[in-house]
Amino acid sequence: MATTTPNLNPLLFPSTPRSTHPTSIPSKRSNLFNIHPKHPHKNPIFIANCSTNPTVSDDKDNVIQDQDSTFSSNPHQDFQNPQKPTSDQPNPSTNSFVSRGLVLDLGQQGCWDSIEVGSPLVKRFLSDEEERWYMWYSGRPGGNMGPGSIGLAVSSNGIHWERGKGVVQSNSDVGLVMKCSNDWWAFDTNGVMPGEVLVMSSSKIRASNAVYWLYYTGFSNEKIEVLDNSLEFRLENPERCGGKGEFGGICRSLIGLAMSQDGRHWARIEGEHHSGALIDLGLEGEWDSMFISSPQVVFHSNGDLRMYYHSFDLEKGQFAIGMARSRDGMRWKKLGKIMGGGRVGDFDEYGVMDPCVVRNKKDGGYFMVYEGVDVDGRRSIGLAQSSDGLKDWHRVEGRPILKPAQETGCWDDGRVGSPYLVHMEGEKDEWRLYYQGIGQNGRVGIGMAVSEGNDVKSFRRWTGFHL
């Protein structure tokens, strides 16, 4: 099943290597969440003959030399076709005005996602027979301070989603797919949140099965003391959106990698950091020394993967977005901050966060949708453009492309953020914007807005199919 997601240039590794002496995935962590006890993997994931040494030049453009790269883009790779899961979807409010745009509500009481859902990561797959959508998202059960987990929902149209109440049991099931780590030394002991999924491959080996690479944020139990917090709102990480209770403060967070053959059963991959993370924090005084969060990885070309992430710049007192580059998707070289806060009075004056970057196939440039924070902590979704996807980013029109609902009582009248952009290639050539919405009453959900034609600068909340 081929993907049409614009920033997902699939790369695949085979599930069974052709080499007689295969090299297994390096340093698979022992705390792998056992979510498939009755059906253990009979066919482990392997990587065959893949270079893990990034080669980034020292020139001002940080051009990656890729003569030895074994990576290749394979947009026509077939995906396995899971059976239709059996799970129930809570019905949103019958008032269409109040629930306008809502596509995934909270899970039922007692479910793994009953108090919070967010961080939607949406992929669309097409074949000659059908259309299939996957959404990985974060969720939390009852208990305001409970750690977050990652789950999977599926859909045939990207609007009506089938979800699961608990842990997945088979490769066609939906529900909870990844919990936080149980290892005391790990960076992700206090919750996990999805960032981006790529499908990787080697150009030297034919593959029949997809191998998903999940880049995610892992939160630790280490709290950060903010010495001079002059912000007009509570600074919190991870942000607790649902329920009532004490604020959690700032937790250290880093970026991790996990792999899967079915998008449901994940094996953590050991990074170079002593905690298992891929990238370390910045040094004291650097803009990303507090935490690193929300990785979004784009395949630019062979041997050139780009990661966008956010942190909080203590010196500037604002959220900011930076980037790193890699040849192999495992070892990363930071390039620094690429976007900070907007102008005084703008919707993103106090910073930008949660970037989602996609490539514009028409001109080869890049779009970035992001969450902007104003002086009161109010969140909206903004848009920036770049010709090369590196440091040359410009805000589009200086205004948000999606604001919290203006009508009081709507499910997302408090704030909107965690955007994810999907290009609907075809007759309509439109864009879909998935996002987390929060009401003024604290209720949380995942919504969807649709562009006016192919104009990425103008979105309206989904209200139903137009026949």
Description:
- The chain has a single domain, classed as 5 Propeller (Tachylectin-2, Chain A).
- The strands form six sheets. Strands 1, 5, 6, 7, 8 and 9 form a six-stranded antiparallel beta sheet that branches.
- Helix content is 0%, strand content 37%.
- β20 and β21 form a beta hairpin.
- With 467 residues, the chain is mainly beta.
- This is Rhodanese domain-containing protein.
- InterPro entries: Glyco_hydro_beta-prop_sf, Rhodanese-like_dom.
- It comes from Ambrosia artemisiifolia (Common ragweed).
Write the layout of secondary structure elements.
Blueprint: E1 2-3, E2 23-24, E3 46-47, E4 102-104, E5 116-126, E6 131-140, E7 149-155, E8 161-162, E9 175-178, E10 192-199, E11 212-224, E12 250-260, E13 267-269, E14 293-301, E15 304-313, E16 318-326, E17 333-339, E18 352-359, E19 366-373, E20 379-386, E21 393-395, E22 415-424, E23 430-438, E24 444-452, E25 455-461
Name its key features.
467 residues; mainly beta; Tachylectin-2, Chain A; six-stranded antiparallel β-sheet; five-stranded antiparallel β-sheet; Glyco_hydro_beta-prop_sf; Rhodanese-like_dom; Rhodanese domain-containing protein
